[in-house]
Structures are given as structure tokens and as C-alpha cells.
Amino acid sequence: MKVIAIIPARGGSKGIPRKNIINFLGKPLIQWTIEAALKSKYITDVVVSSDDDEILKEAKKNKEVLVIKRPFELAQDNSKTVPVLTHVLESLKEIKFDYLILLQPTSPLRTSKDIDLAFKKLLSSEATSLISVCELEHHPYKSFKVDEKGYLQGIINNNYPFYPRQELPKTYKANGAIYIIEEEEFIKKKTLLTNKTTHFEMSTESSLDIDTLDDIKQ
Fold first, then answer.
1. Greatest C-alpha distance within the chain
2. Measuring CA to CA, which residue among 104, 76, 97 is closest to residue 174?
3. 65-103 pLDDT, tens digit each
4. Segment 16-73, tens digit of pLDDT
5. 3-class state of residue 152 by DSSP
6. Distance CA 141, CA 169 (A)
7. 8 A C-beta contact, residue 103 and residue 110
8. Domains of the chain by residue range
9. Is the pLDDT of residue 218 over 60?
């Protein structure tokens, strides 16, 4: 089975300058994700995609990692993830992969064990893709909205905001750590969320997503 892990790491960052190679607990932020990918039992190929030569140089220090220079137009603030992944797959079109795993370098506390457990769950299911999640701290059903007359209303109905949390269904948010999809499905649908997507729940602590300097100080 051929499984490609793609680590997208552009050079620009508004929240933290040079974020992907900033020092995090003794090593560049991206190195945490590279090491997790290399230690995975399932991943056969690890690729770093970046527009930035310094990031690519850092990634090359890991001999097993392949680096691909990303075009300028795919490294903007508003660039989407799907075209970046597509560019990598097209650059390696001579290789047929069974699965694609997206590992964002801003999730340094996601481990190889997390990756392997998530992959194992996907393989044992009938799903075609998987997204890692963590439980929402504030249940969205208990939220409010303001109607056209300026009055407060429950976002779903006026009863849910007063329900005990235990009586409401669990809700999740994507934590950005792990996305897995069959390559054929990705190429066909051009999305990471299919109509058969399962989830892998992670703790709030391991779901840390580095976006600001405060996240690094935690």
C-alpha cells in the first residue's frame, strides 16, 4: 500500500513571521510533523510543499523527505489547500498512491501514534476519508442569534440554550491535525470531506494549533 503524507508549509504568515520554522520546544515547528510522519507505520512517502527555499532546506535535512517547490500563486494568504495537494500529486503523477494524508505543520503535538490510530480506524470502516476532531468547548446548540427585529433567539430553537449539555449531541470541530482520503476519491471529488467521512477524536491538549505567539507560550 502506497500512502503519501503531504506537509504544506508556505513562507508567509501574518500571525507569526516565519511560523513554520520558528523554534518550538527546541526544534523548528515543521520538524515535529516531519518526524511524526516518518515514524508512522503506514506512511510510505513524505513530501513537504513550500514556496520558501529556507523551509525546503530545513525539510531536506531529513533524507527520507521529498521537497516540492510550490508555485507563487499557490502560496498566497487566500490560497486553498486542495489546489496545493493537487499540485503535489500532479508533480508525482508517475506514482499511484492508495491514500493521501494531509499533515499541517501547525499541529506539533499530533504524534505518529495519532496518525496510525486514525489510519487504522479508516481502514476498518467503510468510509473513504477521515478528519481529526476535538470536542467543542461551547456547544453550538446553546448559542444565540439576533433576528431581523433585533431580538435574541436560540440558534436552533429557544429550548436548546437551556438544555443540560449532557442531553445534547456531542459536537466537534476539525482540529487541523490529520486529514486522510483515498487518492482516487480526492482526485475525483477535489475535497477532503466526502459523503463517507469518519472522524478521529483527539484531546484538546493534543489539538494545539499554532496560530499566534501566545499558542507557542502555552
1. 62
2. 104
3. 999 999 989 988 888 999 999 999 999 999 999 999 999
4. 878 899 999 999 999 999 999 999 999 999 999 999 999 999 999 999 999 999 998 9
5. strand
6. 9
7. yes
8. 3-133+173-217, 137-170
9. no
Beta strands in 109-191 (DSSP E): 129-135, 144-146, 152-154, 172-182
3-state helix, strand, coil in the chain (%, to 5): 30, 25, 45
Number of Cβ atoms within 10 Å of the Cβ of 80: 11
Entry pTM = 0.92
pLDDT band at 213 (very low <50, low <70, confident <90, very high): low
Place of cell 535535512: 61
Cα 26 to Cα 125: distance, rounded to the nearest angstrom: 38
The correct answer on CATH 3.90.550.10 for the domain covering 3-133+173-217 is yes
> Is the pLDDT assigned to residue 214 strictly greater than 60?
no
What rounded mean pLDDT belongs to the chain?
94
Neighbours of 27 (CB within 10 A): 14
Is 69 strand, coil or helix?
strand
Residue type at 160 in one-letter notation: Y
- Please enumerate in sequence order all residues whose Cβ is within 8 A of that of 55, keeping only pairs 6 or more positions apart, or say none: 9, 10, 11, 20, 21, 30, 48
CA atoms of 65 and 7, how far apart (whole Å): 10
